[in-house]
């Protein structure tokens, strides 16, 4: 059983052109081993890279943003359910252990974002920060790429929707508080479980649930609009905590709440099922049966407006429970609108005259 890592294997990505198989006890780097591996033999490697662009656009009608930025690729938190794992396949790396141990840092992210924001044709829209991998994963303490991006957004009055599950976000209150005062930032703190035993299996290197509640409290006290993101909801694993998590987040200072059901796109599905069989063999069949029910017979439903909530009796029950929990604790499911009229990027030089 792997210790300190989420994935139990290095499942080859779907775009891998060559595959090297290792003998038992060996552990390769680069997505080439498909069997179980000893995670203790896989130290984390950080790769500096120079990106050409940072802003990514999407046309997904069920997402609350159309543009996003991510300073890192891969995530050391090791959340087994992470829907971003398949992105490592584009690097010919494994969505399994490679995703957790081969971390790519966009060291020129702030400079590239400045160039994009200061283009004459740029039209200001809210940027979502942390939509693929957590912007406050461990390496951020040293690299400070997220902090550089926030400093730039404050300077240019660029609105940001920040998503994280780390209390490291409190480090940047000196930037977030003045942004919030001008209506330029909201933060969603992801809380999956308050049970450290579950967390250590689901999210082995992520911040404990109690620390995430502290992050909600610290942000709220500083005047930063903060919401609970209860994600993912996993039948028979953490769904029993729904009401307790909403109550704790409300007590900590969250103003709103949202949830997302477990998603299993591409390579996440086999990695998840391997993890589930290893950690919860007594309920693996029930979990997958409910996920198929949510997906109309499929283990993953990719259709817009269904992929995040599912459908059927289980989906309706979770929606009802979550809605009642929000109402009971005075929370809303509405999102705080951010201002785009203060942006000074492309027009900053003209403002001198």
Automatic annotation (TrEMBL):
UniProt keyword list: Iron, Iron-sulfur, Metal-binding
Q: Which Gene3D superfamilies match?
A: 3.80.30.30
Under the heading InterPro entries, the entry gives: Elp3/MiaA/NifB-like_rSAM, MJ0683-like, rSAM, rSAM_sf
Q: Which Pfam families match?
A: Radical_SAM
Q: Read off the SUPFAM superfamilies from this record.
A: Radical SAM enzymes (SSF102114)
UniProt domain Radical SAM core: residue ranges: 61-298
The organism's place on the tree of life at top rank = Bacteria
Name of this chain's protein: PA0069 family radical SAM protein
Q: Which organism is it from?
A: Isoalcanivorax beigongshangi
